Amino acid sequence: VQTIINHLVKCYTYGMNVDIDKYIPKQHEKRIKEIIKEVGTEYISAIKNKLPEEVPYSAIHCVIAKYYTKK
Fold first, then answer.
1. How much is the CA Rg of the chain, to the nearest whole Å?
2. pLDDT for 20-33, tens place per residue?
3. Helix (H, G, I), strand (E, B) or coil at 39
4. Considering the entire predicted model, what is its pTM?
5. Residues 6+ apart with CB under 8 A from 63
6. Which of 7, 28, 29, 64 has a 20 to 30 Å separation from 38 between CA atoms?
7. Nearest-CA neighbor of 29 among 65, 60, 56?
């Protein structure tokens, strides 16, 4: 599943019409953004370490694509 979501995120960043919002848990989206502002996007593990265990890496990748990647 992670590989598929990574491909969808890549398509999204290339400007394709992909709904990545469904892969971002709404209850964690704001917190993911706050942590990204704190630690940056260079090391995904630094973001993941500050989140609850149930938040998947794919959600982090989707938030980065949605808010911090130029399309």
1. 11
2. 999 999 999 999 99
3. helix
4. 0.90
5. 24, 29, 32, 33, 36
6. 7
7. 60
